[in-house]
Design brief:
CATH class of the largest domain: Alpha Beta
Low-confidence stretches: 2-17
Helix content: 25-40%
Number of helices: 9
Order of helices and strands: HEEEEHEHEHEEEHEHEHEHH
Largest sheet: 9 strands, mixed
Radius of gyration: 21 Å
Mean pLDDT: 90
Number of strands: 12
Amino acid sequence: MRYVVTILLLALIGLTAKPLSASECKAVDMAYAPTWFPLSYQDDRNVARGIALSIHKQIFSELGRQVNFRGDLPWKRQIEMVESGELDAIATINYNEEREQQFALSDSIHTYSVRIFTLTERALAYQTLDDLKKYRGAYPKEASYGGTFDNFAKNTALLQGVSEARRMVKLLIEKRLDYFVMPEHLGYHLIEQSGQKQNILAQGPAIHKQNVHLAMSKQSPCSALVGEYNQILNRLKNSGELENVSRHYN
C-alpha cells in the first residue's frame, strides 16, 4: 500500500510541475574559464574577452537578455552550480555524452584542434596515443578530449591531470615532462607568453577535433532559450559573421 501511495505522489508531482518558461529568464548568469585563450579569458585589465563570450553577448542581446559573466569560479564549482541551477550557464564546455545528459547544450560554437607539445630538442616518435604510454605527459585536469583520449588518460599511469595549464609549459621546460596535451591555440599562446617559442613545438597531427558548446542548466528557465539561441547561431555561421569573430581573436 505504501508503495502505491508513493507512486501516486510522484505521478502527481510530475503532473503539477511547472514547465520552464523563457519569459522567466530576465538575465543570464554565466560562468567562464578566465584562462582559456582564445575562447574565454581576461585581458590585462581583467575584462572578460574571447570568441565564446563575444558570441554569447551578441546572441543573448538579440534575445533581449543581458549576460552577467563570472570568471572567479573553479571548474568543478562551475559544473556544480550550473547543474543545480545556482547559475544559468557555462560559457564553454567540451562535448561528451555525459555532459549532453547533464546540461542543455547549444549547437557547436567553435571547433579546435588538440595537439601534443614537446621540446624542440626532444621530439617524440609516435603514431598513436598508445605509443605515448612510455612517456611522461600532462593534460588540463577535468578536460575532455573525446572518448579515445579520455579512456587513454584514465588508463595511462604516466599521464597526469594538471590544474593550471601554464604550469605544464614550466614542467616541460624543466624536463619533468616529455609532452603535454592542449588545445592548439591555447598551447601556442602560453608558449609565447612564457618566452619559449623556439623551444617548444606542436608535434604530429591533431589527436582530436573538439567541439565546444554553451552549457545551460536544465534547472534554469534560460534553458528554454536554447532553440532560439541555436537559430541565431546558425544564421551567424551561414553569414560568415561567426568566422569573423574567430578571426578577430586568432
